Amino acid sequence: SKAEMGHTCRGTINLATANITVEDSCNFIISNGGAQTYHLKASSEVERQRWVTALELAKAKAVKMLEESDDSGDESVSQTDKTELQNTLRILSSKVEDLSTCNDLIAKHGTALQRSLSELEALRLPPDSTDKIKQVNERATLFRITSNAMINVSGRAEDSSGGRAPLASLLSAVFPQACRDFMLLAQTHGKKWQKSLQQERDQRIRLEETLEQLAKQHNHLERAFRGATVLPASTPGTGGSSKDLCCPSKGDLSDEDDDNNEFFDAPEIFPMPDIMGHKRTGSNISGTSSDISLDEQYKHQVEDTKKEKRTRIPYKPNYSLNLWSIMKNCIGKELSKIPMPVNFNEPLSMLQRLTEDLEYHELLDRAARCESSLEQLCYVAAFTVSSYSTTVFRTSKPFNPLLGETFELDRLEENGYRSLCEQVSHHPPAAAHHADSKHGWTLRQEIKITSKFRGKYLSIMPLGEHPRERGGFSGQPQASRRGSRHSFPPSGTIHCVFHSSGNHYTWKKVTTTVHNIIVGKLWIDQSGEIEIVNHKTGDKCSLKFVPYSYFSRDVARKVTGEVMDPSGKVHFVLLGTWDEKMDCYKVQVGTGDNGAEARPRAHEAEDSRVLLWKRNPLPKYAENMYYFSELALTLNAPENGTAPTDSRRRPDQRLMENGRWDEANAEKQRLEEKQRLSRKRREAEAARATEDG
After folding, report:
1. What's the pTM?
2. CATH fold of the domain at 329-460+490-589+600-657
């Protein structure tokens, strides 16, 4: 808050008082006198000098701002306070005018009194009477001087003989100085008092807001406690009490710290009101619903979805959520094990998000028709970039699949391909994906990711190790998959094979970064490099995803690339953004023997530009439907003939899509607890088998 800006925060150095010293050609030091010191190293002497110059300018600006804030501290005063201050000054001015009027009256009557006394003294009176009259005259003069001094009017009080009266001289000096000191002190400290008053008022407002939030949270907790009685009956090992769903027992929380929980676990229930109009027409699904009741409703919805693909889903409810109520129970845990309610999710599984890579499958269809392997590589590169276009607005987290969960997408009639995904490992999370097209290509990938929380942002990075947890893959036997990795990269690599030419391409994904995790609006960036290799011909394509920078003049989300033959000669240059489009420029051979001299000319040859890919526009009102694309809107629609393990049949995901988030949270916890018990059972069986040899 503004009130805390004047205090020193841990780990910061105030530029106004910072000491900036150069250590050597590349190193320099920033210190605040001993409490905090930063040793910084630049990549070169030029960069070091740029940093030092920029910091010195910033320091000068900070010092200037500090001086200006001291001189004009009342800039932050609100309009109401200024009005009150003006009213007070107006009243004080009126009082000063009243005092001045009184002084004039006192001076007038004092002068008349002195004149009368002087006339009386001139008369012939007895000697003792003359001394008495002089004494009265001196006191009248003293009274006049005192009155003048009280309003900062310095008068010279002289006695009847022309000399200064000692007491009158003292009062004449003391009273004006006291008034001036008071005025100077009031002017000096008035601004500081005003700022302190404003800070106190701001703190009072913040306290009122905090109390209001606490009252709302208390109300939510009461509703959660009342609703706990309708949550699912406890399964063996869960504690046997519905109260444990809101306040997990020690045994439940200990599971959170084990390595068998990845991304799951929602120990808190966040009650949300039902969305009218989004309830199902069948039996009311709650936490106690069984798989049979879900299947009945699933079959009821299937009839209309096979004929025509849906173009909308129920709008996302506008539910507020206190992030602190989530984070306070997760201090010290790994980010992947932080329990998250469905409020942070979107109604799609990670397997369905993986299938969204096929949204621009026509790029692979066109690549399959290319006779040149280099041109084919350009379309494969565009397909690689297009898989990130759905992430620009999609900041919500997909549901983490359960072990053995599958997702099948059959688009043979409409688009000529069929896709199958399966969650083959729970910790670490890994998914296998296989897609075949009748247009002459096959795509397969096995993705395992890891995440690192770095304070302000979260980095999601793909890994290349083989999942250690045993799990089946419906599209291909596990033994054959292991055998196929002797010649090509292991898990974490994407494979694309074209049937007619036999060209086999491989590549990996880049790092995804989610910014403003704690404070601010979430936004996503992609950064890193991708190397696409044709293992048959040796052709390569190097793609670079430029990370976003506030200080860069380049277009945001920029992607550049070069398509090279086995000798390293560049034939095509790729340029675009991962959220909009990708263009291809054919390199014109210049005077040199290789393409190095001709690369700059590729951007100038506008006539050689070919638009490889352009992002499809989002559906109408997509902002109310989690920013889903047209394909994403159809992925969770019920379909006939899907497996019992299909993601479309997940009850928590279906409840969330229909806006019933409180029931979705309860069902999510039930499924995750069931998975924990299943894993413990498998580990116990493995331990017994090991003992038996």
Report:
1. 0.55
2. Porin (2.40.160)
